[in-house]
Amino acid sequence: MQIADVQDIIDHEMLSHDEIVNRIHEVAKQIDKDYAGKTPIVICVLKGAVATYYELTQAMTIPMKMDFMSLSSYGSGFESTGKITVRQDLSYDVAGEDVLIVEDIVDSGNTLHWLVGELNRRGAKSVEIFSLLEKPARHTAKVELKYKGFVIPDEFVLGFGLDYDEEYRNLDSIAVLKPEVYKGANS
Ligand code: 5GP
Ligand code: MG
Ligand code: MG
């Protein structure tokens, strides 16, 4: 809760910094085991996954390559439009490569469903996902998460990379936005 005035817009803290980081480190150990002998391309889905990506990759001990992709499905609203656009593409050709996608949250599943399909079309040898958060109540497009941090209720959360109207990504924990804040907004 290090950001000034964050208390004005949040209802409560959902996950502390230590809880989040400890869980990411557990996942990193599992990934080290599962990818032993391989050199995966680990993709950060910008911008929401940056904090998770940093903690994960610092904790990994196997060889890996970093790449970044920016997709848009939400804009600054609260509901996924279902139409995905690539704002910034990968720098690597993933054909024949083991690819691990790192995401902040799966809500409708539209974004990841599209991305997994796209990486398979490009000829990736394997495609797996680590999402820090999952809102299972909302899944409409099927995605299989090999790795996940926490399953959370259907509430709008911010912090640890996740934004509220592009701000608060640098909050070091995850918090629930006050319902009156988004009920009052256009979505
Ligand atoms: P999906 O395509 O699965 O519906 O949504 C994917 C993206 O929507 C996420 O990567 C994230 O950027 C955004 N999103 C979904 N739920 C939340 C939420 O509770 N808080 C924030 N800040 N972003 C969310
Ligand atoms: Mg995201
Ligand atoms: Mg957003």
TrEMBL record:
Subcellular location: Cytoplasm
Annotated signal sequence range: none
Pathway terms, separated by semicolons: Purine metabolism; IMP biosynthesis via salvage pathway; IMP from hypoxanthine: step 1/1; Purine metabolism; GMP biosynthesis via salvage pathway; GMP from guanine: step 1/1
This enzyme's EC code(s): 2.4.2.8
Family that this chain belongs to: Belongs to the purine/pyrimidine phosphoribosyltransferase family.
CC per GO annotation: cytosol
Family annotation (Pfam families): Pribosyltran (PF00156)
Entry protein name: Hypoxanthine phosphoribosyltransferase
SUPFAM superfamilies for the chain: PRTase-like
Domain of life of the source: Bacteria
Reactions the enzyme catalyzes: GMP + diphosphate = guanine + 5-phospho-alpha-D-ribose 1-diphosphate; IMP + diphosphate = hypoxanthine + 5-phospho-alpha-D-ribose 1-diphosphate
Example GO BP: guanine salvage
Cofactors named for this entry: Mg(2+)
CDD domains given in the database record: PRTases_typeI (cd06223)
Keyword Ion transport: no
Record-level Gene Ontology MF annotations: guanine phosphoribosyltransferase activity; hypoxanthine phosphoribosyltransferase activity; magnesium ion binding; nucleotide binding
Residue span(s) of domain Phosphoribosyltransferase: 15-164
PANTHER family documented for this protein: HYPOXANTHINE PHOSPHORIBOSYLTRANSFERASE, HYPOXANTHINE-GUANINE PHOSPHORIBOSYLTRANSFERASE
Keyword Nucleotide-binding: yes
